[in-house]
Amino acid sequence: MAATVTVEPAGRSCWDEPVSIVVRGLAPEQRVTLRTSLRDEKGELFRAHARYRADAGGELDLARAPALGGSFAGLEPMGLFWAMEAEKPWGRLVKRDVHQPFAVELEVLDGHEPEGGRLLGRTVHEREFLAPGVRREPVRAGRVRAALFLPPGAGPFPGIIDLFGSGGGLCEYRASLLAGHGFAVLALAYFRFEDLPESLNVVHLEYFEEAVDFMLQHPKGITATVVINSCVANTIAPLHYKDMIIPDLGSDLGKHTTTESGLLDFMNIWNNPLEKPYHQSLIPLEKAQGPFLFIVGMDDYSWKSEFYANIASERLQAHGKDRPQIIHYPGTGHCIDPPYFPPSRASVHAVLGLAIYYGAVRLRSPDGEQEPGWVVAGDGAGCGQPGKMALIAGQA
């Protein structure tokens, strides 16, 4: 091995932090292939590769050198991370144990063949999910089952309750990373975890009130809600709150289509909540006290996220509420993960057990440029100050 691979920050970085990758000791204008790989907690392999050409001095700096093909093309300094794909079909990269980093292997191979080139250099870089000083506290308060992530320091901190969708369990990786940016984040489980219900059918909304009450032990209350690619109507199972039941929207599975790859496309199966038979499934957002921020992936194939966000906007304004902020991301599918996660175009659905198509490739800003940063309750949603709290309703 003749080349030296340098990754900065050296040794370890947070998953949502960009890194600098430089290869030195190559021949002038040498053609090489860079390859990354990691194994998730189940041992599944994820890989990416890209072809490059060194400069006249034998150096390759990914901040300046465009990829000439492979898993991606063009100037993408972090492409070798976000472009990783599962070796197993429809695999999705998730993180269950946030205490343990992912070890990413980066190799430099001679030539433009990702499997056959001579190994020139190699390094391993760890991508962690707990920034220095971030504390994780397990929460078992009444019925609430959660994990609270607190930034370093005395606070107070802006607070977030982080909810995932129909997969169940306790997902912590988004909460742990957000805590590294100064938020106090409660990653909240609400079914399929410990002694919580196994099914959404028996989940009662009073449970979430308990979670809010727990967070209210920290100063101030919920002042904003961030909704990521969610439906404005109740979808899969009835919602129970005291003596009120919000029925599910219902669907017609016969309206599904199949992609050329054999994936199921469920975008058009859902009933229209604006039609009278399904109107009772609409969630009464107008009763909320704070503003809303809707994140809409314009290529969401799980359902019509933009349509639902517009319904919510009209409903809120019709009841004298402020118009919510809606941010549209062209070319973005249903699953929006933290920065530099490989995009999840499809995976086996946790409830249905079938391979579902989620939509397009990656998060981009409204003007079409790459958007690697977090989207949380910020300037337009009233949660940029210490002591305030937002509720994030996530997807998948």
TrEMBL record:
Acyl-CoA thioester hydrolase/bile acid-CoA amino acid N-acetyltransferase domain ranges (all copies): 16-140
UniProtKB keywords: Fatty acid metabolism, Lipid metabolism
Domain of life assignment: Eukaryota
A Pfam family annotated for this UniProt entry: BAAT_C
Keyword Lipid metabolism: yes
One GO term (biological process): fatty acid metabolic process
Domain BAAT/Acyl-CoA thioester hydrolase C-terminal: 220-359
GO MF, one annotated term: fatty acyl-CoA hydrolase activity
Similarity remark: Belongs to the C/M/P thioester hydrolase family.
Protein name, per record: Acyl-coenzyme A thioesterase 6
Originating organism: Cnephaeus nilssonii (Northern bat)
